[in-house]
Amino acid sequence: MTVSLPTPSQLRAVAEQCGLSLTEEDVASFRGLMQGSIEAYNLVAQMPDELPEVKYPRTPGTRPAPEENKHNAWYRKATVKGASSGKLKGKTVALKDNIMLAGVPMTNGSSTLEGYIPDFDATIVTRMLDAGAEIVGKTHCEHFCLSGGSHTGSYGPVHNPHKMGYSAGGSSSGSGVVVALGEVDMAIGGDQGGSIRMPSSFCGTYGMKPTWGLVPYTGIMPIEIYVDHTGPMTATVEDNALLLEVLAGDDGYDPRIKAPKVEDYTKALGAGVKGMKIGIVKEGFEQPTAEAAVNESVREAAKRFKDLGASIDTVSIPMHLAGGAIWTPIGTEGLTQTMMFGDGYGLSRGDLYSTSLMDFHRGWRRQADSLSETTKLFMMLGTYINNNFGPRFYGKALNISRRLTAAYDKAFKDYDLLLMPTTPMKATKLPEPNASREEYVARALEMIGNTAPFDITHHPAMSLPCGMVDGLPVGLMLVGRMFEEKTIYRAAHAFEQAGDWKKM
Ligand SMILES: NC(=O)c1ccccc1
């Protein structure tokens, strides 16, 4: 790729875009003044990129046949064997399809990325392989991860593991399904508004959104740095803690990681909850879309923590119900400026940039009509706001997010954990292919009220299955102090060991 000097007409167009009026003389002079910098660009263009080495051999894999993919959870099966020993020896892992696995196609749920092949492994991929894991494939996710349902991906809806025709939750939809069906031991998800925890809730799996800045997001297609998280989705608490042990810690690339507190999470298991103080967040049961049976199931589960020796109490955090609103400018403008118009990355952070993804992803502009209805909606809103107000609402919301963090931290003075339903409802029916746009969008966004606040406050939060209603799982969310994943695991493990949630 080389850069040529702008032609006079290109320069006049750029000047107009910048609000400048140039004479013909100005055009000639500015062209001359750009010559040296254009040469600098071409020097950069000729230099080799600086990417991490790909350590383990693999093949591009295959799309599984429909009969091997009844729930449509898999995008691709591809096997990569890791080291011969390590903490994850014998464990199979699936990756959400926004995670780069070099040499294996990646779409992030969008047909506009069809044909893209990553050229390096995400940091967490290398870490899992170094720990002896076997990666077995990539799972379908929602279109550019912008939905909590499982019907917006370009490759068709993903079905709930407990009931065909029902939502698996999203956006890490396929990861929830393959774990719940036992097709893999472990999966990786991503979470910007709840996308690890929501499918965990709908599918009946354990899903941890770790503290922001604990697990490197390097090599995962970003939405927006302030909300991007990745983390483990598993069938047991022990596997979840074990996987987080492997994923956590600075990688020298991710600029959000500053001296994280990394712990041996599995050491938290078995300690019980005696003496632990759990605050039941009143407002977490008051979302507009709350389902009475789900609230009831989560309240019953809270009592089981009490039976196990924890003290439980109701705590009111009024600002919790504003969390979704405060998330909205950050999520919307972030995804518009960074993921869409920033070609996946935008500027201004010392990250590891995938220029191959940036080059390929630019092409969405030629196929914008094929984007999902949720992507179109968010992107048009973000563009409208940006055209008329600039990024000031993003900035103000980010400032206010600190007040939201403080509101939870105040509760953490009295409580070790906060508890509420992960999603206000259990899995809903997948919209019919001819459903209205209004229904399509409702089924994509109606469940994020309890999860999204913690993507901007950055507290660790985990969904655990706590019961069944009408044959569908109910998810309970535990939220901890910053970097206190250990406390969450301690409680989640005690709860898991105390009884089979499928019978509750
Ligand atoms: N990726 C997410 O967590 C997300 C979920 C719902 C809406 C937007 C983003």
Provide a descriptive summary of the structure in words.
By secondary structure, the protein is an alpha/beta fold. The protein has 2 domains: 6-44; 64-501, Amidase signature (AS) enzymes (Alpha-Beta Complex), CATH 3.90.1300. The protein is 35% helix and 13% strand. The chain contains 14 helices and 11 strands. The protein has helices at residues 8-17, 24-46, 123-130, 173-180, 197-203, 237-247, 292-307, 323-340, 355-361, 373-389, 392-414, 437-445, 453-457, 485-497; strands at 74-81, 92-96, 134-139, 186-191, 206-209, 229-234, 277-281, 311-315, 417-421, 461-469, 472-480. Strands 1-3-2-4-6-5-10-11-9-7-8 form an 11-stranded mixed β-sheet, with helices on both faces. Helix 4 (173-180) runs parallel beside helix 5. The chain is globular. The mean pLDDT is 98. It binds benzamide. Benzamide binds at residues 145-148, 171, 191-195, 331, 445, 448.
